[in-house]
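Action item from last meeting closed. Structure (251 res):
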């Protein structure tokens, strides 16, 4: 039985990835700071018919991550795949953004990715069967909107951390990749109290060369490839944005 561990798996892209891998027959372990979202996601995994585990926790705290992965190993086994999806954003004018706010975003998004990767990699290395680590970055690592400095910096750091760890962990046959999503609609992948049907205008769709807004399933399918079918790849960043970052826009 293969095991996948996902941070921020209670809602949004993380929940979509958990659902996708559950349908593939993976045992699924998720950690999320939102207890209700995590419990609801766990119930979905159980309904699919796979073994699953939810552990509440803050990915920026090593003790929480250690507790989660220890429970994962005890209940399901050592993860074959780790997906670092947990992330937050504080959107605020840069001249008004406090150092504490900037640090909070970096702590969850970038520091959390390192903490979980290191802890999972130690387990994978000890088992000596290799594994895959997939980090969720963003197209914001390469292009920006105003007021997103903390988020942008964290996602750029994840891209760099990815190729760094890919080299360091190669001797243990652990492949490390990142995915940079663009606009991925997650309004219908939230906990019940927040979920709502997506609404996209014609302009929303047509600004994407692919002709539509992305879904968590688009990211999940890429995760599946990186986890199962990319034996001759490591350290790469996969952009999933419907072609937005290659489209020239003139005003």
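Sequence:
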């Amino acid at each position: 039985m293969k095991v996948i561990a996902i941070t921020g798996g209670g809602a949004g892209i993380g929940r979509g990835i958990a659902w996708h891998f559950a349908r593939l027959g993976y045992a699924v372990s998720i950690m999320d700071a939102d207890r209700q979202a995590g419990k609801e996601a766990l119930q979905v995994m159980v309904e699919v018919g796979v073994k699953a585990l939810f552990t509440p926790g803050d990915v920026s705290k090593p003790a929480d991550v250690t507790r989660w992965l220890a429970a994962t190993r005890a209940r399901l086994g050592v993860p074959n795949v780790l997906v670092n999806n947990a992330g937050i954003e504080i959107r605020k004018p840069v001249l008004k953004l406090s150092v504490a706010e900037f640090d909070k975003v970096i702590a969850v998004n970038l520091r959390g990715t390192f903490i979980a990767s290191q802890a999972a990699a130690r387990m994978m290395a000890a088992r000596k069967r290799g594994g895959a680590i997939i980090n969720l970055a963003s197209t914001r690592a390469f292009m920006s909107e105003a007021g997103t400095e903390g988020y942008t910096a964290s996602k750029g750091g994840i891209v760099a951390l990815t190729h760094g760890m890919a080299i360091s962990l190669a001797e243990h046959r652990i492949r490390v990749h990142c995915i940079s999503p663009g606009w991925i609609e997650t309004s219908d992948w939230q906990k019940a109290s927040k979920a709502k049907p997506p609404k996209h205008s014609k302009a929303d769709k047509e600004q994407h060369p692919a002709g539509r807004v992305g879904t968590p399933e688009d990211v999940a399918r890429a995760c599946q490839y990186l986890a199962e079918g990319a034996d001759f790849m490591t350290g790469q960043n996969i952009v999933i944005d419907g072609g937005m970052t290659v489209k020239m826009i003139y005003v």
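Note appended to the action item: The longest strand covers residues 174-181.
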